[in-house]
Amino acid sequence: MEQKKSEFLAEIVEQPQALKNLVSFYKGEGRSLLDNWARQIKKSKHVVFSGMGTSEFAPEMILADLAQNGIAAMTIDAGEWLHYPRPLKGLPVLISQSGESVETRKLAERLRTPFVGLVNNASSLIGRKATLTLLMCAGEEAAISTKTYVNTLGVLFLMAKAIRGKKDVDAGLNALMKATKCMGEYDLKKIKEATSVLADAHCIQFVSRGPAMATAKQTALTFMEGTRLSTTALTGGAFRHGPFELAGKGHYVVFVVPCGLTHDMLSAMAVETAGKGSRVVVITDGQMQARANLRVLRVPRLGEGLFPIAAAMTHELLLYETAKQRGIEAGRFRYGTKITTRE
Q1: Whose CA is closest to 127, among 145, 108, 140, 142?
Q2: Which of 19, 26, 308, 18 is nearest to 159 (CA)?
Q3: In terms of CATH architecture, what is 188-325?
Q4: Residue in 302, 143, 317 with CA at minimum distance from that of residue 219
Q5: Which of 213, 243, 252, 310 is the most exposed place for a label (fewest CB within 10 A)?
Q6: How many Cα atoms occupy the beta-carbon half-sphere of 343 within 13 Å?
Q7: Do domains 7-182 and 188-325 have the same CATH topology?
Q8: pLDDT tens sequence across 30-76
Q9: Average pLDDT over residues 276-305
């Protein structure tokens, strides 16, 4: 009997085309939406991103970029904001691929101020209630977030560029198109070798800094969903302040190391951790070399700001292969569903 193809694997492969669809949309009819966003945020000067899981983590990619443009930005778990209200200053941006995630949906119904919705489904409740709706253009998705994750990153990247003006949006669209052409440049053989490093783990830590914290947090989340391993996501500084004591036999870490401000610190920490006996995998667009206890997965170099998109297919395939070795079909949910409708 022919084995059913993995929906998760199929959707990983569809990501470059999904991102192309996004670029086409924002080159055309979506351009005015970016202009509208830029006008609103320049007036507000503050933005609060809110969502659950992937939708909460993705804005990490642009927080520093927004700060450089004079925009104070923060992220908050939609469920926490819903049940423990606080006087958050700024324009809310509610993110939900379905537009129907229970906590974010309830938050949209409760808010009495204008908000921006970033959704994949314009006819969803969040899409309808938002004063401005930005579309992911990711198409249908059934398994763990892949296309919606990358396209959320793509829209956020363009939102940051829009604040600077037309030329920067044009440059951003060109950068995303370049990403569609090279994001699939992964080395499956090395990914499988790295999987063997992680195969007998009981818990994995994912460590990064800056914009790539979006990658660390997303990968930690999806590994829990897809491999049923316990994970944590930590900044490099947080890892040094205590968790580094775990280093040694039986300890597993994935370092996410883009070329950028903290590349040297993170790469040195990865080597040091492997030297203590930990099993280490490094995802990087730099020139690190493999060594004892340390495997390196290279991704295309698109700049620190686009690293999360460059690394997406590599960490998703690492998840898929790890789940496979554990006898699990990644993307097949046991208890949850694609759209979370119960708190």
Answers
A1: 108
A2: 26
A3: 3-Layer(aba) Sandwich (3.40)
A4: 317
A5: 243
A6: 12
A7: yes
A8: 999 999 999 999 999 999 999 999 999 999 999 999 999 999 999 99
A9: 96
